[in-house]
Amino acid sequence: MKPQVKPKSTMALRAKAACPFHSLSNLVDLKFVVDAPTERGGANLGPTPTDMACSTLVGCSRVIANRYAKSFGVDIGDFSFEATSELIVAP
């Protein structure tokens, strides 16, 4: 049995940040900071933007995998995977 396609609902997403200096984004509503390591001029106070991108990919993929599996009546249970990235630094 093929799952029915449901219309997508719309959600407004927002992130508000205070940015006290060039590398630091203090996400006020979400209660965390994004920063660069000291080698790149930051204070190393939190994950880098690249760390956040990989984390977001992993988190979203988990939700989507479960949603698709559920639509086919499958319980995929626990699983793990990882995302890696390579930051190319311009000379």
Can you offer a commentary on this structure?
With 91 residues, the protein is α+β, with helices and mostly antiparallel strands. It has a domain at 18-71. The chain is 25% helix and 13% strand. It is built from one helix and three strands. The chain has one helix at residues 49-71, and strands at 17-21, 24-27, 32-34. Strands 1-2-3 form a three-stranded antiparallel beta sheet, with no helix packed on it. The termini are far apart. The model has no long low-confidence stretch (mean pLDDT 83).
In short:
By secondary structure, the protein is of the alpha+beta class.
Rounded to an integer in angstroms, the radius of gyration calculated over CA atoms is: 18 Å
Q: What shape does the CA trace take?
A: elongated
Helices and strands, in N-to-C order?
EEEH
* DSSP, total strands: 3
- Largest sheet, strands/sense/barrel: 3 strands, antiparallel
- What is the beta-strand fraction? 5-15%
Lateral strand order in the biggest sheet: 1-2-3
Low-confidence stretches: none
Residues in helices, as a percent range: 25-40%
Rounded mean pLDDT is 83
Tell me the distance between the termini: 55 Å
